[in-house]
Amino acid sequence: MEKLKNNGKIFVFGAAGYYLLETLWRGHSHWSMAAAGGISLLFLINVFKKLKNAPLYFKSIVGGTIITAVEFVFGIVFNLFLGMSVWDYSSVPGNILGQICPVFSLLWCGLSFIVAFFEKMFSTGKIVFPKKALP
């Protein structure tokens, strides 16, 4: 039950964080991007725990790949299959079906570096949440 509770907190943090970042970047977002952010952060945290001894640059590449894969799946479902037109990278060089592109994959690697850094700080006890701060 504790693991489910922790995963729920990670999901909510990733969902809110991604939605906020996209709103700051584009001026708006879509609920599906919150879901993508939550799923991405869950994947990242769990993979980074398994790669605990890997260097941060490697984790950032793995993380960027994970986020790009989640973005691609969400793009296929929400943009191409459901026709919701949440985003379109078709004008960006190197895009695949207008859903992912190298520019954003690099940005995801940078974001993953930050996530990997903080995950390491939390997992080694260098940063701790106060018990009262989390319900």
Radius of gyration of CA atoms, rounded to a whole number: 16 Å
Q: So how many helices?
A: 4
Amino-to-carboxy terminus distance:
14 Å
Order of helices and strands: HHHH
Overall tally of structural domains: 1
- Summarize the main sheet: none
Helical amount: 55-70%
Question: Which regions contain 5 or more consecutive residues with pLDDT less than 50?
Answer: none
Structural class: mainly alpha
Strand content: under 5%
Shape: globular
Number of DSSP strand runs: 0
| Residue-averaged pLDDT | 92
Could you please describe the fold and organization of this structure?
- The protein has helices spanning about 1-25, 30-50, 55-80, 100-125.
- It is globular.
- It is mainly alpha-helical and about 140 residues long.
- Helix 1 (about 1-25) crosses helix 2.
- The chain has one domain (about 1-135).
- The protein contains 4 helices and no strands.
Which short descriptors sum up this protein?
single chain; 135 residues; mainly alpha; globular
Quick structural summary:
By secondary structure, the protein is mostly helical. It contains four helices and no strands.
Give the SSE map:
Elements: H1 2-26, H2 31-50, H3 56-81, H4 102-123
